[in-house]
């Protein structure tokens, strides 16, 4: 089997594991739509629970943060190319415009620099148009050891 | 819908935070609990299995911790200031210090700077150390800027 095929199998395993094994992302209805060594895409369907201000009818920014945190971690793991423990060191969000009710949220993250210890990730979230993001983000992750057999 | 001023009064005078929380559905989704201790709001994220982000440890999802802290900052401002509208978050930054255990998390906030248009809020999040009553472990530190008052409509 070529290294390329191993990679492809890893990405699919990561995507499926993500959908089935993480209780909180499952509760939020998040799905990873695309994933490879260049980055990850995820989405989260709208729910009235996501509102932060019922008068204005806009998402709570914390909901956007949760999706971005998730897709950024997945992008870091995809760039690592294998299952390893990844711990978020920090995450910064800029909320460029409100996310409005009734529309799903999409996010894309890229790991733009990977060292032996640290993954540097940038991400953005949007609703209708990727070129008009509701938020952009930078985050760093610490790479842990590869989990061994139990 | 109950207006913000009445919701704030219910919280401040009767300790009833439900009208305020009803204005912020995501705070209700996370089941964020609020108490006032000598006028200072304290926030609690009750543990539930669906908040787990890493089943192997197990640890709370970092996004849920961040969402909890953003809710704490927002509710803190709603309780302490007399804003007529819900303040808008401009940015949010979080440093994760330790992975969050599968137990309740707590948060408290401090307004480091409040101008006419912008407030800067610092958020501290911690958990009780299991097996060591009274000892706490810090989970994360956060900070956020919020747009206030008339500046919000610009």
Largest sheet of chain A: 6 strands, antiparallel
Determine the mean pLDDT of chain A.
90
The helix-strand sequence of chain A is HHEEEEHEEEE
Ends of chain B: how far apart?
25 Å
Supply the number of helical segments of chain B. Answer: 4
Query: What profile does the largest beta sheet of chain B have?
Result: 6 strands, antiparallel
The helix/strand series of chain B, from N terminus to C terminus, equals: HHHEEEEHEEEE
Give the spatial strand order of the biggest sheet of chain A: 1-2-6-7-8-5
Number of helices, where a helix is a run of at least 4 consecutive DSSP H or I residues of chain A:
3
Structural class of chain B: alpha+beta
Calculate the mean pLDDT score of chain B and round it. 92
- Give the largest chain-chain interface (CB within 8 Å): A-B, 39 and 41 residues
Rg of chain A computed from alpha carbons, rounded to a whole number of angstroms = 16 Å
Calculate the terminal CA-CA distance of chain A, rounded to whole Å: 26 Å
* Helical residues, percent of chain B: 25-40%
Low-confidence runs of at least 5 consecutive residues of chain A? none
Helix content of chain A: 25-40%
Q: List the uncertain runs of chain B.
A: none
Beta strand % of chain B = 35-45%
> Which assembly state applies to the chains in this document?
heterodimer
What does this 3D model show about the protein?
- The complex is a heterodimer of chains A (150) and B (154).
- Chain A is α+β, with helices and mostly antiparallel strands and 150 residues long.
- Helix content of chain A is 30%, strand content 37%.
- Chain A is built from three helices and eight strands.
- A six-stranded antiparallel β-sheet of chain A has the order 1-2-6-7-8-5. Chain A has a two-stranded antiparallel sheet with strand order 3-4.
- In chain A, a hairpin with a 3-residue loop joins strand 6 and strand 7.
- The two termini of chain A are 26 Å apart.
- The mean pLDDT of chain A is 90.
- Chain B has helices at residues 4-14, 18-22, 25-29, 62-80; strands at residues 33-37, 40-45, 52-54, 59-60, 88-96, 105-114, 118-128, 136-147.
- The two termini of chain B are 25 Å apart.
- The model of chain B has no long low-confidence stretch (mean pLDDT 92).
- Chain B has four helices and eight strands.
- In chain B, strand 1 and strand 2 (40-45) form a beta hairpin.
- Chain B has 154 residues and is of the alpha+beta class.
- Classes of the chains: A alpha+beta (150), B alpha+beta (154).
- The interface between A and B is large, with 39 and 41 residues.
- Strand 5 (86-95) of chain A pairs antiparallel with strand 5 of chain B, so a sheet runs across the interface.
């Amino acid at each position: 089997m070529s290294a390329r095929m191993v990679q492809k199998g890893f990405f699919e395993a990561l995507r499926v594991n993500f959908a089935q094994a993480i209780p909180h992302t499952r509760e939020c209805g998040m799905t990873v739509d695309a994933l490879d060594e260049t980055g990850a895409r995820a989405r989260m369907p709208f729910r009235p629970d996501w509102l932060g201000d019922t008068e204005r009818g806009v998402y709570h920014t914390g909901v956007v943060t949760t999706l971005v945190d998730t897709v950024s971690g997945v992008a870091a793991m995809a760039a690592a190319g294998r299952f390893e423990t990844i711990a978020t060191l920090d995450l910064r969000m800029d909320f460029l415009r409100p996310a409005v009710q009734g529309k799903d949220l999409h996010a894309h993250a890229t790991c733009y620099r990977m060292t032996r210890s640290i993954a540097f990730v940038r991400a953005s979230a949007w609703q209708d148009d990727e070129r008009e993001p509701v938020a952009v983000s930078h985050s760093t992750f610490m790479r842990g050891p590869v989990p061994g057999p139990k | 819908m109950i207006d913000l001023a009445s919701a704030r009064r219910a919280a401040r005078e009767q300790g009833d935070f439900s009208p305020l929380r009803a204005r912020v559905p995501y705070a209700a989704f996370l089941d964020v609990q609020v108490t006032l201790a000598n006028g200072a709001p304290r926030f609690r994220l009750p543990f539930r299995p669906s908040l787990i982000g890493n089943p192997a440890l197990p640890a709370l999802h970092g996004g849920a911790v961040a969402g909890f802290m953003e809710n704490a900052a927002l509710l803190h401002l709603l309780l302490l200031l007399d804003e007529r509208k819900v303040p808008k978050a401009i940015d949010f930054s979080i440093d994760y210090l330790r992975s969050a255990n599968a137990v309740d998390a707590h948060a408290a906030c401090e307004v480091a700077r409040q101008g006419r248009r912008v407030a800067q809020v610092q958020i501290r999040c911690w958990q009780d150390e299991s097996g060591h009553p009274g000892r706490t472990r810090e989970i994360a530190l956060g900070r956020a800027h919020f747009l206030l008052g008339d500046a919000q409509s610009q």
